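thread: overnight batch results

M.L. [08:02]
morning all. the overnight job finished for the chain we discussed friday. pasting input first so we're all looking at the same thing
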Amino acid sequence: MIDVKPRVVAVIPCYNTASHIAEVVTKCLPHVDQVIVVDDGSTDNTTIEASKAGAQVIRHERNMGYGAVIKTGFREAQIKGNDIILTIDGDGQNNPDEIPLLLEPILGGEADLVIGSRFLSNNPNMPSYRKFGIGVITSLFNLGSRTKVSDGQSGFRAYRRKIFEALSLSEKGMSVSIETLEEARKRGAIIKEVPISCLYSLPTLNLKVIRHGLRVALSVVKIRLKSSLPSFIGGKIARNQSL
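M.L. [08:03]
and the structure it wrote out:
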């Protein structure tokens, strides 16, 4: 019997990352079978640089948001018949040489979804405001759940095919990171985390960043309520019928 090696694709969401994307693509290629860059309406040379580096590029004509980028990448990966999707940021924050760390639990049959967690390793350069914001969002996701994670906002992940095919995503922004976890959790996926490093640029806290964090936090609450409401209603109906 011949073992068939799973086909792995890296999906890289991008918006104005021309200065980093070629290096990210080049470093991803030795670890995967294909690299797909989804350019979310960049106004710089992101598409050109990604193509020159060897990636297949799908370009949105206008900026549609991180959620739309993830859905485009997942859809293309399914069409190409890939067995594992790996998502990694295109701005150089993640280290592509850590890709094997995320693939190992899936290839070994230990997980369906693997998160690269920035909180399981020492990342001294993470800005304190970012650490606080991610911590709040992750805590909201973990509230009342048996399946808990340490980094609900990490975009460095790997998904087994049966999971990414089953996801039904509607979020348009960064809250899709939580939505994918909630969808996977509802479907009984085995979720595992591995420690990763992360490189940050100089910290800048401003009103735009604060508003973004609040929007994501509110979206997380909405996602959790939407997920738990049918179970609550179903349980209430069942109890009333038994009276």
